[in-house]
Amino acid sequence: MRAFLDRASKLYYEGTPLLSDAEFDLLAEKHNYNTVGYEVTDAVPHTYQMYSLQKFFDITKAPALDGYVRTPKLDGAAVSILYIGGELQLGLTRGDGIHGRDITDKMQHLVPNTIKYLGVVQITGEVIAPSSVPNSRNFASGSLNLKSMEEFRSRPLTFVAYDVQGENNSTWREAMGALNTQGFNTVNKFDASAYPTDGIVYRVDSYKTFKSLGYTAKHPRGAFALKEQIAGVETTLLEVVWQLGKSGVVSPVAILEPCIIGEATVSRATLHNIEYIRDLNLELGCKVEVIRSGEIIPRVVRRLD
Predict the structure, then answer these.
(1) What is the C-alpha separation between 289 and 166, in angstroms, rounded?
(2) Is 116 marked active-site?
């Protein structure tokens, strides 16, 4: 299963996900999988490491943070942008958090090209697309891979900042306020109602306290993401059939004992590929958990018995 989740994680960060967020979260929690990011072949180092946020599905299990702020967790493509002497010098995809891929040519169309900070400043944030765009998260991430700048500029993309490093600010709110006055969208001021979100971020406001709490190898201890776990429905796997998709790929489909998810009766669900079936140890007659990914596509996410 680890190899499968490694592949799913890589495809997620490349903008072509194999699983939905809900599916990945369920499998990652079940198998204690916490690898973040992907190896970048054309690597450029971030000036400051881009850490991921530890995820919790129950607020009572999350760390108690004093003096925190809450903001929406935007669901797009995380990037860093670097300014030196007030001039935009570099834009990078998140990559593995240590190295990313150079997207400076694209970011210069989404952010101010000059700022008032004269030192070395790294601003991190999310490139997002409106929820009205189908598969908006994939759309935003995939846009950063486009070769045509004309097509990139035509797309409805927005950059929203959520942190800044290299500049002396006493609080996170103060830092976001300074960015906001310089023309940046900031996550605490941005109206995210028309954009995809996948949880709430809790973060210590004081930079001094935030830094004193330190980091694990992957996460800051002064922030975390609270996510809503989508509850699945239990049913029985009756049969597996193979179908030919529009792309010419043959993939397995689960035939299920009919069950109700939301207002829909579900009797079929995707199984992705034979590796997925083996990793979940599925057998005819076993009990499985099914969700509707994006409230549309039924998917088997795990075996229950």
Answers:
(1) 46
(2) no
Please give the radius of gyration of the chain, using alpha carbons only, rounded to the nearest integer.
Answer: 21
Weakly modelled stretches of the chain, pLDDT under 70: 1-42, 229-230, 246-247, 293-296
* pTM for the model: 0.71
Spatial distance between the Cα atoms of 286 and 271, rounded to a whole number of angstroms: 14
Domains 2-34+230-303 and 44-226 equal at CATH topology level = no
Alpha helices by DSSP H, listed for 108-232, are 136-143, 149-154, 172-181, 207-213
Q: Which of 10, 61, 73, 218 is catalytic?
A: 73
Smallest CA-to-CA distance from 10 within 103, 126, 168, 141 is with 141
pLDDT score at 100: 92
Q: What CATH architecture does domain 2-34+230-303 belong to?
A: Beta Barrel (2.40)
Fold classified for 44-226: D-amino Acid Aminotransferase; Chain A, domain 1 (3.30.470)
